[in-house]
Input
Amino acid sequence: MYSFKRFRFLLLLPFAVIIIGTFGMMAIEHLSFLDALYFTIVTIATVGYGDVTPATTGGKIFSIFLIIIGIGSFVTLLTNIIEWFSQRRRYSLHQRRLNMLIGVFFTEVGNQLLQIFTNYDPNIVSIRREFIITEKWSEKAFMQLHKTLANYKFTVVPAQLDLEKLNRYLNDKGDLLIRQLENADLIENETYSELLWAVVHLRDELVARPSFYNLPQNDITHIANDVQRAYALLAGQWVDYMLFLKNRYPFLFSLASRTNPFVEKPTATIS
Output
């Protein structure tokens, strides 16, 4: 995407040419400000009415340079504006595809995984109400929820971990996780790629153990830390996903809010 500084420079360039041309013709041809400005505009625009023309050799030479520089600056500006709008449209479509793929993750993996993780969090009761997202929420409310999450200590009690259940669930979703990791577009999204790697790493840690029977306490604590990392990243990404649904797909947002994984007993049924 074009930087604001570059775009601002391109916008100022034609005005700079007009100003230089106006004062240049005033100095060389001894024209009034209005006549010099008028002559500069018609020269750059190649209209050439002929009612104001350079009378001196210097004026004619200056007019030649004015035509070359003026046309070049306007063509450059126009080309860059077209390219900027084209890039903006491509970027918008790209972000939309990314969010749709992230939506697949939450539908197939993320929502259920969040429900599992919240069962291991003894402090979740204190902030459950903060996650009750409705259609009345503004973007400011979503940003406030992000701040709440930034100050929340995601906690996982190792003794409450059901490693067998977690292992079976992540194994069942292994193909989807790997396919998403192989998607170059998704990996470009740094926040989401960190989440994917955290979930895949947790899966790999569980798969690497032939049995969960009688694991050392240090090992269980290690796995709990991996769960905690994935839990925190998953919660933050879920908030962004819900904001995207609310802005772009209200009908999907309706279902997602009814099956909110942070609600103790979510249901899709509308009462």
Remarks:
- The chain has a mean pLDDT of 85.
